[in-house]
Recover the amino acids of this structure.
């Protein structure tokens, strides 16, 4: 039986994100378009004879090991399969944390998949997706294997979209991260003062090209986040000034994504941005 497996855990961006009121479970309802990027963390999972989960992280501080979604994901699979073995997980972080790029969720999704493979794929796909939803709203998207998908409810309900050609992009990751709960609090304050945006009538035929997606792009978090973090507004305005066909903050921030028509346009944008506004990461999206 395989003793060690590895995988990449890709970052996502939200190409549009609309946030509605709180549901009965206390979570906000959302409507979003997820897309994977080539920016990714690295996971290595080793099967051990003794039960338990160990985690070694390099590249970023992800907090206490016991609170890490990777550990929780691995324990879910081990508990569900009888704890006949343990795992040691090596996680190399490349995705900025607290940036709205879903790094922790993607890591957790790959942990579910890899540990399940070590268990002989004992847990069927539909049960893995249920586990993923318990771990976090973005995790089912990463488990699904889709490159691009519509998400709604908390984001855990997804519809895979037909693939479109990957596009050159920049992820701009400012040094200061934003806690998701904090961003929702800012948004709720704004919503008390003015009505929120209405639901969008989603037409799959209108999501077949990057031009289509650019016309629909938007993120309800941008206004409240930029109001409270003026340097982020400045970074966003600088990124818009590089001439992308689409530019948005991802998730609840603080990272931003800009998508370009050509790799030459992206290279010019990298030169224009420099390092003043944060990490500039050249990636592919879609």
């Amino acid at each position: 039986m395989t003793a060690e497996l590895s995988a990449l855990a890709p970052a996502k961006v939200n190409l549009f994100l609309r946030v509605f009121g709180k549901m009965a479970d206390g979570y906000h309802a959302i409507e979003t378009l997820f897309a994977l990027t080539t920016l990714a963390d690295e996971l290595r999972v080793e099967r051990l004879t003794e039960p338990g989960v160990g985690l070694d992280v390099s590249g970023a501080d992800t907090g206490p090991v016991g609170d890490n979604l990777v550990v929780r994901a691995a324990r879910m699979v081990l508990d569900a399969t009888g704890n006949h073995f343990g795992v040691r997980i090596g996680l190399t972080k490349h995705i900025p944390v607290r940036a709205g790029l879903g790094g922790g969720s993607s890591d957790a999704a790959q942990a579910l998949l890899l540990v399940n493979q070590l268990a002989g794929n004992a847990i069927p796909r539909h049960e893995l997706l249920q586990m993923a939803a318990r771990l976090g709203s973005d995790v089912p998207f990463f488990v699904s294997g889709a490159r691009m998908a519509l998400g709604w409810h908390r984001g855990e309900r997804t519809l895979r979209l037909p693939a479109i050609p990957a596009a050159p992009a920049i992820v701009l990751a400012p040094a200061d991260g934003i806690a998701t709960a904090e961003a929702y609090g800012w948004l709720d304050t704004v919503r008390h003062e003015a009505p929120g945006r209405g639901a969008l009538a989603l037409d799959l035929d209108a999501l077949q090209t990057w031009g289509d997606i650019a016309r629909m792009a938007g993120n309800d978090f941008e206004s409240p986040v930029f109001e409270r973090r003026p340097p982020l507004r400045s970074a966003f305005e600088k990124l818009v000034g590089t001439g992308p066909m689409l530019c948005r903050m991802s998730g609840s921030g603080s990272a931003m994504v800009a998508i370009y028509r050509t790799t030459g346009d992206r290279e010019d944008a990298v030169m224009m941005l420099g390092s003043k506004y944060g990490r500039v990461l050249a990636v592919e999206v879609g």
User: Anything to note?
Assistant: The CA atoms of residues 143 and 258 lie 25 Å apart. The chain has a mean pLDDT of 92. The chain has nine helices and eleven strands.
